[in-house]
Amino acid sequence: MKKKRKNGKERGGEEEEEKKKKKKKKNNNNNKNNVSNENNGRLNSSTTRKKKKISKTKKKERKKGKEEEEENEEEKEEETEEEKEESAYRRNGGN
User: Fold this and answer.
1) Which of 45, 58, 63, 68 would you label with 86, given CA atoms 20 to 30 Å apart?
2) Where is this region: Disordered (predicted)?
3) HEC profile for the chain?
């Protein structure tokens, strides 16, 4: 006895079997595209390569940003030291 759905129609008709076959075939194709290559250990799909490139570029940008921030901080420290020396020189009457 076939089970009925909530709307009263029976499950498992020919149309449904065709849909399942198409879906299974599509999944198999997707799995073939994502199989890892034994030689280099990378995924074959181009999307994963693009994602890896994007993440690498983001990492590089972060590193650059951190380096720039460090340089800016060092410059600020040098400027503040120079200002302190100048103000001390002025306080002492320019001697």
Assistant:
1) 68
2) 1-95
3) CCCECCCCCECCCHHHHHHHHHHHHHHHHHHHHCCECCCCCCECCHHHHHHHHHHHHHHHHHHHHHHHHHHHHHHHHHHHHHHHHHHHHHHCCCC
In single-letter form, the type of residue at position 77 comes to: E
β-partners of residue 73 are none
Quick one: pLDDT at residue 26?
74
pLDDT in tens, 64-75: 888 888 888 888
pLDDT of residue 38 exceeding 50: no
Domain ranges of the chain: 15-33+45-91
Token pair in block for residue 35: 């199989």
Question: Residue 42's pLDDT is what?
Answer: 53
